[in-house]
Amino acid sequence: MAEIAPDILARAQGGETAAFDELVRFYRQDLLRVTYRFVGNYEDARDVLQLVFIKVYQNIGRWEPRAPFWSWLYRIA
Q1: CB 38 within 8 A of CB 57
Q2: Could you tell me which of 40, 52, 70, 76 has the fewest CB atoms within 10 Å of its CB?
Q3: Is there a contact between 48 and 35 (Cβ–Cβ < 8 Å)?
Q4: 76: Cβ contacts below 8 Å, ≥ 6 apart
Q5: Which of 5, 26, 6, 15 shows the shortest CA–CA distance to 60?
Q6: pLDDT digits over 19-72, tens only?
Q7: What pTM was computed for the model?
Q8: Helix, strand, coil % over all residues of the chain, rounded to 5
Q9: DSSP structure class, residue 77
């Protein structure tokens, strides 16, 4: 799994909306595949994906760079 540039993550953690939007675009497709595997329905997977990104937005300040960001996203999903 490719990781997003660290500066984008730092800017998103700092509250920059444009950086968070870039983060969403970067991970959206891969995370949609994960949520689809969990729920087995495309529409439900999209709903879950939206909830995951809401949680990420609310908690991004808690992510610590010692672990890959993707693994943190996966745990939220």
Answers
A1: no
A2: 40
A3: yes
A4: 52, 55, 56, 59
A5: 15
A6: 999 999 999 999 999 999 999 999 999 999 999 999 999 999 999 888 889 999
A7: 0.89
A8: 80, 0, 20
A9: -
